[in-house]
Amino acid sequence: MFVDTAKIFVRSGDGGDGAVSFRREKYVPLGGPDGGDGGKGGDVVLIVDNNMTTLLDFAYKKKYASEKGGNGSGSKCFGKNGEDLYIKVPLGTVIRDVSSNKIMADLSHPGDKCLIAKGGKGGRGNVRFTTSVRQAPDFAEPGMPGEERYISLELKVLADVGLVGFPNVGKSTLLSVVTKATPKIANYHFTTLSPNLGVVNVPGMQSFVMADIPGIIEGAAEGIGLGTEFLRHIERTRVLIHVVDISGIEGRNPFEDFVKINEELKKYDVKLWDRPQIIAANKSDMLYDDKLFESFKNKVGKLGYNKVFKISAATKKGIKELMQEAAKMLASIPVTDIEINEEDRFIPEEKKFTYSIRKEENVYIVEGSFVDRLLDSVNINDPDELRYFYKVLKNKGVIKELMDSGIKDGDIVRLNDFEFDYVM
C-alpha cells in the first residue's frame, strides 16, 4: 500500500524539576543548600531511513512523545536527560508545521535529519539561588515545558526521470521494459494508482531512477481524476519523458493530449512546464500511416520540443535510443533541492514567558505563562522567597508597567490566586 501523506502529533519531553535540598552531615553544622538541576527533556527528531518507501507506518500511529528529563536531587546531583525520540521517514519527505503550513525541512538526502520539537530545559536547583544575603533558599525552578505541534509529512518521490502522459498510453509498459519494476499493466484507464520506480541501466552511461507518475489528466491541477495527488512526485525530477499514443487507436489526438498535459503541469507549477522534456511517441507498431508521426513531430517542433522518439514499448523498438538520450541529458543537469522561499520556511520561535495586565475596578490583574511559572517556583509564604518573588517582578518590568498604568498605594495586585496590596 502506497501512502504519501500523513499528519502526526509530536511532543518533546518536559525538563526535570530542580531540587530543594540541604546538606546535612554529622560534623558539618552549616552544610547549606545542595539541590541539583533537573535534566533536559528529550528532543523529537525526524531521520531518513533508506529502507522506507511510503508513509504507511504513520497511518496507524499518530502520536509521538519523547522522554521527560529527570528531577534533580540532593548532593548537587543533576537529573538524567530524557532520551531523544528518533522517528524514521522515507527519503524525499517534506515536513510542514500544520498551524502555519510552513516548511520545516526537506529530507532529500541519505542521513538527513531534522529537529522537530526541542526538549524543555531542566529547572535550576536551590543551590543556584544562593547569594550573599540569601544563603538558604528554600525554592527551586520547575522544568521548562517541551514543545508540541502537529506536523504534516508529504512524500515526494526521488526520481531523475518522470514519465507523464494520459492514462493507457503505455507508461507502465515502458517502465517495465527498461527496468526491473513490475507495475500493473492492463488495457484500461487508471491501471496505475501509485508511483512506480525503477532503475535504468544504460551501458557506458550513468544509471538513473525513472518513475511512472499516474493520474495526470486534463483538469488534474484542479483536482480532477487523481488530481494533485501525484503531481507532487514530478517536482524532484530533472527530465520528463512525455509519453503519447501516436497510433490514435482510442480515437484520441496525440498532439492535443500533449498540449493538455503540459497545460496541467504549467497550472500546477510553471517550473514543471519549463523542465526538459523528451517526447516518446509510443505504440508506433500499431501506426497505420507514418505521416501521422511526421505531422505530430512538426507540430511539437513548432512549440520548441525537438527531442521526439518514435517507439514501441511492446516490441522495444526505439527504446535504447530513448534511454540513451535521457541519460545524456541527465549528465548535463545538476541535482538540485526543492527551493523553499523565505516566506514558506518555518522559523521556530524562542520560547518566552509572557504576561498581560488588565484592570477591574481597583484590582490590577497580572496573568500569563510568566505568572504561572513564577508562582510554581516560589513559596510566597516564606519571607526570603517573597523577596525573590518581588525582585523577579521588578526585573521583568511588571512593577514599572503597573506604575505606568496608574496604580496607587492600597490598590490590589492579583496573580492567579495570589493577591497583595501595592505599596510604593
UniProtKB/TrEMBL annotation:
Protein name: GTPase Obg
Enzyme Commission code: 3.6.5.-
Naturally occurring in which organism (per UniProt): Clostridium moutaii
Protein residues bound to Mg(2+): 172, 192
Enzyme class: hydrolase
Domain OCT, chain residue ranges per copy: 345-424
Chain positions recorded as GTP binding sites: 165-172, 190-194, 212-215, 282-285, 312-314
Cell compartments where the protein resides: Cytoplasm
Matches recorded under NCBIfam families: Obg_CgtA, Obg_CgtA_exten, PRK12296.1, PRK12297.1, PRK12299.1, small_GTP
Cofactor needs: Mg(2+)
InterPro entries: G_OBG, GTP-bd, GTP-bd_Obg/CgtA, GTP-bd_prot_GTP1/OBG_C_sf, GTP1-OBG_CS, GTP1_OBG_dom, GTP1_OBG_dom_sf, OBG_GTPase
